[in-house]
Amino acid sequence: MKLSKRVEKIQPSATLSVLGIAKKLKGEGYPVLSFSAGEPDFISPKSALDAARDAIDRGETHYTINSGIPELKNAVAGYYSRRFGLNYETSEIIISSGAKPVVYEALQTLVDPGDEVLVFAPAWVSYVEQIKMSDGRPIAVDTSETGFVPTVEGVESKLSPRTVGMILNSPNNPTGAVYDEATLKALARLAEENDIWVIFDEIYERLVYGDTKFVNILNAAPGIRDRVILINGVSKTFCMTGWRIGYALGPKRLITKMGDIQSHFTSNASSIAQWAAVGAIEGAEDDAERCRSRFAKRRDILVSLLNGIDGLRIESPAGAFYVFADVRNTPIPDDIEFCERLLSEKFVALVPGAAFLAPGFVRISYACGEDDIREGVGRIEDFLKSKRAR
Ligand SMILES: Cc1ncc(COP(=O)(O)O)c(C=O)c1O
Question: Which domain holds residue 257?
Answer without folding.
Answer: 61-283
